[in-house]
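Pipeline run #58 for the internal structure catalog. This entry was flagged by the ingest filter as a single-chain record with no existing model, so it goes straight to prediction. Upstream metadata was stripped on purpose; only the residue string is passed forward. Reviewer on rotation: M.T. Logging verbosity set to normal.
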Amino acid sequence: MDSAAASGKALLIVITGPTAVGKTAASIALARALDGEVVNADSRYFYRGMDIGTAKPDLAERQGVPHHLIDLLDPAESMSLARYQDLANAAIRDIHARGRLPFLVGGTPQYINAVVEGWRIPRVAPDPVLRHRLEREVAANGVAPLLERLRAVDPVAAERIGRNARRIIRALEVHEATGEPISAQQGKGPAPFATREYWLSLPRERLYAAIDNRVDDQIARGLIAEIRHLVCELGVPPDAPAMSSLGYRQALPAVLGGASIAEVTERIKFETHRYVRHQETWLRKNPRLIRIDLTVEGWLDRLRDEIARDQMHESAHNPLPRPYTAMEREASA
């Protein structure tokens, strides 16, 4: 990152962390203070009409801070990683061109890494017919036969993907379209930006409590009615990509029949607890992340000051110094 700054690359701030940790509120406060704009890196924010269950910030909550890549898609549509990367890079460069600071904010690791690490991604459009056929095969026979088919044409991808049906189908789709293994078409390019990546962190018990409070609030504000409107009035298929989102998938039985609101509420909480454990596993594996302990008093002001200092170094084309040593010492004490 320091060498990127020295080479004159523009500054990008990443704010990430587990679900319900407070990324949205923190990024809005920082962007307001530092003349910034937010570029969404949360896959659930793409969908129009899915507001309560995603905890998407409304216009009032955004406090005048421009947000990009929100409400792009109908719930029956899908977002490819390649398309997201193109849209995010374009938004970030547009923000830079206007002399403002971009904040890439969200908890979807693939989207963040695709931008930060300059991933090379095959530009192969989805093939709905092929996907449907392969999905039916998985439903009928399980994932193992499809994995063996992938192993025959791309053993590297098969080893890396494991039993993830969605990614196996994508790898076979790319091979079908190009005749080349997807693994040969992927990789990391040069980092396009001088990036600072911050991980907002809370102790597990406080995070679980924040999740449970959020879920209770979403149910009270009408999550079930929102899903009913999408499925029963707008005709969004229950198996649409958006409906696999956390919260929506678990709450669907309360709309379609088969579960009470109390049952789906507990299921959402349980699945969200499990999901944040997976998120934290990824966060711990990312050596670029600077962990911010939200239990440390004054953390937001100090983070703002660190980013402001980085802005000054960037404008002077100086290497970025290692930040947050004082806070990290205090947090670990």
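catalog note: Residues 103 and 231 are 33 Å apart (CA to CA).
catalog note: The radius of gyration is 21 Å.
status: ready for reviewer M.T.
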